[in-house]
Amino acid sequence: MHIPTARRSRTLLPLAALIAGAGAACHKSTELEAGAVMLDVSVAAGVTTPDELRVSVFDDTGTLWMDMRVPGSGALAPQSATHLGTVLIQPGPTQGALRIHVRGLASSAPVADGTLKIPAPPRGQFPIRLDGSAPADGDGDGVPDAIDDCPDLANPDQKPCPGSNDGGLDTAPPEDGGMDAAPPEDGGMDAAPGDGGTDAFNCDAAGACDRALGAECMDSVQCHSSFCVDGVCCANACLGPCRSCNQPNEDGTCLPYPQGTDPAAECSGMTCNGVGSCGPAPGGPKKNGELCSSTTECMSGFCKDGVCCNSACDTACKTCETGTCNNVTRKPDAPECYGTMTCNAAGKCVLQ
User: Fold this and answer.
1) Measured at the alpha carbon of residue 110, what is the angle toward residues 108 and 111, in degrees to the nearest 5?
2) β-strand 125-130 against 37-43: which pairing, if any?
3) Would the pLDDT of 57 be above 90?
4) Alpha carbon separation from 168 to 81, 154, 303 (Å, rounded)
5) Residues 308, 290: contact at Cβ < 8 Å?
6) Helix (H, G, I), strand (E, B) or coil at 140
7) Does residue 128 register a pLDDT over 60?
8) What gap in Å lies between CA 209 and CA 292, rounded to an integer?
9) Contact yes or no for 337/315 (Cβ under 8 A)
10) Which residue has the higher pLDDT, 67 or 334?
11) What are 86's strand-pairing partners?
């Protein structure tokens, strides 16, 4: 299903958008340019399904598109309640990484939000999952901190960060501290054309990356979500028995094993109850620590980080991965404390 073409006001290069509700055949007739990005858009379980998307795209020169409506008119035709479809972005020549902000709206009200950083071409297809939490925006400029090039000073047009010596664009070679675009063997970004760019993630000099949900990982520092579980970047810690983050076609989402099974042999003499723990299926509201997608499922009335929680636990540097709200320390807490911010040893969100 083709969406009316919009254009960049500066260079009149097109943004083409597709929603896959009409099937994969929609994509076959679309010729992709070298730096094109195909976003595979989904929403977290329990989040209201949007009826429109708003897409903003930035590169190192500033705003490419701001709050572009997808589809251009009418209502979104999602593939399912959680899988919305694909959006094709063809930005033409760009400088540096693409920084993408996607908002989901239902009846004109914001219901879902997600961000993504994608390195310089070659690019390819990338998953982006929207959740129901509003992203941190410390300077109030409308650009989430996770993708804001200047998170401590409002610059909604994302022009080079005011006050930077080189205009905000670090174009120096690796020897003098610029961006290391060398091949992976020397710690740079993997942008090998043979894999379509899908293994290229914004890794910094310390090895920290910004991999999307469902991407392969070996350490939580590689993931935008701060969680590497079962070999993939996961939406939450996915702790406890009878659950995993790499079930077929659902990489990145913590899901329970089916009731009556125990594929990981975690339930001694019992089987999984279908909601992420061992034992019989619950006969009423779920207990703290059991998987949830909405507050109505939980005995406590709180569903946070994908599990029933003992409190709202909705401030920065707080997590409910075990069912009890605790501090996040010595690592980011996406989406509330991420980008240039991190949780310190005391569980406070501070500048890195």
Assistant:
1) 120
2) parallel
3) yes
4) 40, 14, 40
5) yes
6) coil
7) yes
8) 28
9) no
10) 67
11) 40
The C-alpha atoms of residue 20 and residue 335 are separated, in whole angstroms, by 27
What does the block give as tokens for 93?
């020549």
Burial call 305-332: b when 16+ CB within 10 Å, e when fewer? bbbbbbeebeebbbbbbbbebeebeebb
Domains of the chain, start order: 1-21+32-134 (2.60.40.1120), 286-352 (no CATH)
Sign of CA dihedral 209, 218, 36, 236: negative
Q: Which two tokens stand for residue 148?
A: 């804001």
Residue 171 vs residue 335, higher pLDDT: 335
What confidence tens digit (pLDDT) does each residue in 175-212 have? 443 333 333 333 333 333 333 333 334 555 555 567 88
For 31-90, list the strands marked E by DSSP: 37-43, 52-59, 62-70, 83-89
Q: Of the spans 35-49, 116-130, 222-236, 248-262, which averages the highest pLDDT?
A: 248-262
Look-up of token digits 């200047």: 150
Q: Which residue has the tokens 């702790």?
A: 239
| Nearest Cα to Cα of residue 338 among 322, 350, 323 | 350
In 3D, which of 65, 193, 58, 170 has the Cα closest to residue 118? 58
Position 96 confidence tier, pLDDT thresholds 50, 70, 90: confident
89, amino acid identity: I
Find out whether 128 and 100 touch, Cβ atoms under 8 Å: yes
Residue 6 CA to residue 4 CA, distance in Å, equals: 6
Two structure tokens written together for 81: 């309640």
Q: For 35, which DSSP code?
A: T
Q: Which of 231, 242, 219 is nearest to 289 (CA)?
A: 242
pLDDT at 118: 85
The pLDDT of residue 159 is above 50: yes
Lowest pLDDT segment from 10-19, 118-127, 296-305: 10-19
Give the chain's length. Answer: 352
Which one is predicted more confidently, 289 or 30?
A: 289
Q: Note the pLDDT tens digit of each residue in 225-257.
A: 878 899 998 988 898 889 999 998 889 999 999
Whether the CB-CB separation of 348 and 317 falls below 8 Å is answered with yes
Q: Answer positive or negative: Cα dihedral of 252, 254, 259, 265.
A: positive
